[in-house]
Structure formats: C-alpha cells, structure tokens
C-alpha cells in the first residue's frame, strides 16, 4: 500500500509524497500532481475545472487500485476551506464528470490499473458555479492510497 497526500488549492498546488516498503515481487513508485483550480469567479455561470495526475511506475507486471479519501467534506461534496469559509468541489475519474473518484464505497468509483512500466491516471476536478465565497486561498488535503 502506498500513500501520497495531495493538497487541492485554489491558487497553488502542493504535494507531499510518502512511499512505504515494497513487496519482494514488485516495486512501484508513485507520484502525483495535485489539482489546481486557479482563481474562482463566483459570478461565472460555468463550473471551474482543472486536472491533476497520479503516476504509477512498477518494475514488474502489477495490478493495483487507486483510492481517494473524502478530504474535509464527504464524497458527495468535498470541501476546500479558507478559515471558516468553505468552497465545494469534487474529483472525478473521467472528463465527463460522471463518477466521483473515491474508495469504491457508496456511489464512488476507484481507478484500477496494471503496469510493468509507467501509467498516468488523470484526476478531473470541478468546482460548481454560483458559490458565494470570501476572497482567499482555499485548500483541502486528499489522501491517495495505492493498493497492489
């Protein structure tokens, strides 16, 4: 199991990477680029969208699953915070924004893969339009768990 922490920021992206011990059969390296939404316009009629990526590299043919935590909110509505102010958002498995990327429980999906080289998995982020929020930097921490 591998864990990486990904900061979701409105103005910037920060990344922390933790790698545990690998099994004797396979060794995998995991890295991620967080989702950075940039500036949010509460008067815009369209949602604000952006992408990030999880990269998995293994030295032997390995199947795995990528699970995302709910962060500061719930899977149905993740939340970024700036002090006591909240900004709703969510993370999805595809550019159609049909399936919330989670841990496979409830109505969430997880992403599966198999690789003996490097495989990239896009994270699709969306902040719904029409939210009245205070000016500032909003962030949330999502734990990415890789099981193989």
UniProtKB/TrEMBL annotation:
<dbReference type="InterPro" id="IPR007893">
    <property type="entry name" value="Spore_coat_U/FanG"/>
</dbReference>
<dbReference type="Pfam" id="PF05229">
    <property type="entry name" value="SCPU"/>
</dbReference>
<keyword id="KW-0946">Virion</keyword>
<feature type="domain" description="Spore coat protein U/FanG">
    <location>
        <begin position="23"/>
        <end position="145"/>
    </location>
</feature>
<protein>
    <submittedName>
        <fullName>Spore coat protein U domain-containing protein</fullName>
    </submittedName>
</protein>
<keyword id="KW-0732">Signal</keyword>
<keyword id="KW-0167">Capsid protein</keyword>
<dbReference type="InterPro" id="IPR053167">
    <property type="entry name" value="Spore_coat_component"/>
</dbReference>
<feature type="signal peptide">
    <location>
        <begin position="1"/>
        <end position="26"/>
    </location>
</feature>
């Amino acid at each position: 199991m591998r864990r990486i922490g990904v900061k979701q920021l409105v103005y910037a992206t920060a990344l922390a990477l933790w790698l545990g011990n690998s099994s004797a059969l396979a060794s995998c390296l995991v890295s991620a680029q967080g989702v950075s939404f940039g500036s949010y316009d509460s008067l815009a009629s369209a949602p604000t969208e952006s992408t990030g990526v999880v990269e998995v590299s293994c030295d032997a043919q390995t199947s795995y699953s990528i699970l995302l935590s709910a962060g500061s909110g719930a899977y149905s509505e993740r939340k970024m915070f700036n002090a006591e102010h909240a900004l709703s958002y969510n993370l999805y498995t595809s550019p159609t924004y049909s399936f919330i990327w989670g841990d496979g429980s409830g109505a969430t999906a997880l992403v599966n893969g198999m690789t003996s080289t490097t495989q990239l998995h896009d994270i699709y982020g969306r902040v719904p339009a029409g939210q009245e929020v205070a000016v500032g930097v909003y962030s949330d921490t999502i734990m990415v768990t890789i099981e193989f």
